[in-house]
User: Fold this.
Amino acid sequence: MIAKKYLLLLLILIVGCEPDDICVEGSTGTSELIIIFHDIDNPESRKEIQNLNVVGSINQNDFESLVFTTSDSITLPLRKFSSSTNYKFVLNDENNMIVDELTIFYTPNDIFINRACGFKTIFEELNVSYSSNWIKNIVILNNTLSGNNNANIKILH
Assistant:
C-alpha cells in the first residue's frame, strides 16, 4: 500500500512538472524594418548610399541618430506603442545636406511567444509617406514586419 502511494506521488510529480521555459536565441524580440536602396535609373539594381544620417524620434523629447557610411541596406526600429514612426534621412552629399522625411504607418500587434520570451510585436499594414528631395520613389515590398529577414521597403534614389 505504501509503494502505491509513493508510485502515485511520483506519477503526480512527473505529470505536474512543466518544462523549463527557455527562450531560444534568435526567436525573441521585435524585428526591425529592413530598407534596401536601388538605383532610380535601373530599379532592379541595388545602389549604395554614402554618408547617410538617419534621425528618429524615440519619444517627444528624445531623438536617436544612426550613421551609415556606405551601405545598400539599413535596418531601423519602429515604435511599438504608436501607429507611426518618423525619420529624417539626411544625405551628406559634397558639402550639401539633403533631407527627406519619412513617416512609416503601421498597425502594431503584440503576440505572446512564451513565458521566457514574453511578447513580440508584429507590424502590419505598412505604409510610407515621404518628401522627395533625394528619394525619388518608395516601393513597399512586404507590408508585414513579422520577423523574417526579407526587405520591407525599397528606396529608389
